[in-house]
Fold:
Amino acid sequence: MKRIEPLSESYYYILLCLAKGANHGYGIMQMTEKLSGGDVKIGSGTMYGATGNMMKKGWIREIMSDEPGLERRRLYQLTDSGRKALRAEINRLQRMLENAEGV
Amino acid sequence: MKRIEPLSESYYYILLCLAKGANHGYGIMQMTEKLSGGDVKIGSGTMYGATGNMMKKGWIREIMSDEPGLERRRLYQLTDSGRKALRAEINRLQRMLENAEGV
DNA sequence: TAATATATGTTGACAGCCGACATATGTCGT
DNA sequence: ACGACATATGTCGGCTGTCAACATATATTA
Structure:
């Protein structure tokens, strides 16, 4: 069942935020809300569940912060695999919209 | 929490198929597979769960078939409310793609 | 000093989705 | 007449994602 799994809205925005640069959980939550114009809010339960899941999948990896004083942050970086997953999702969304032409 | 609920891929295609004309469960399954180029297959569990759910929401209604010999079919028709839900979802997908510009 | 923002995490409950299974009729080739 | 397949609808159980609520700790600002 190698079917391309649709991503949830939350997962999509997490990947999207990380595609614009490494970030940490709380930062992603804020960025998502801003990026979506307030429409999408990711709760911490969703956030930290998702990061664990994506680490397992190899879509993101944790990196050390080079900024002093921000050691509390856990910085995540998109992997090549994660970027592929995001592109696949973008393509899926585009196909979905194409199929809606004339509706 | 009046947050706009994202639709699943299956729900989206069911509404999309019905937007092109009244249809029955099995017909929607086939139409979805064809429409998506074989990418999206809706299982019967999803299908009949979804129709019940959408009936409750008022997105679809059941109508009587005027074709003789096809009494087994349960024909569904999109309501105005269902068409609105579909348009809202299309807009959501478009916004998601706009947010991905430059990725 | 108190409130708020930053930052990460756990837990429990709920709902949705899907695959697998079940059932029945219709059709088509041999 | 028979078997295979397509048509057509439906149930059930498990898995996953989501969110609210709770918990903890530090930093900033009034």
Q: What stands out?
A: Chain A is about 55% helix and 10% strand. Residues 80-98 of chain A form the longest helix (19 residues). Helices of chain A lie at 9-19, 25-35, 44-57, 80-98.
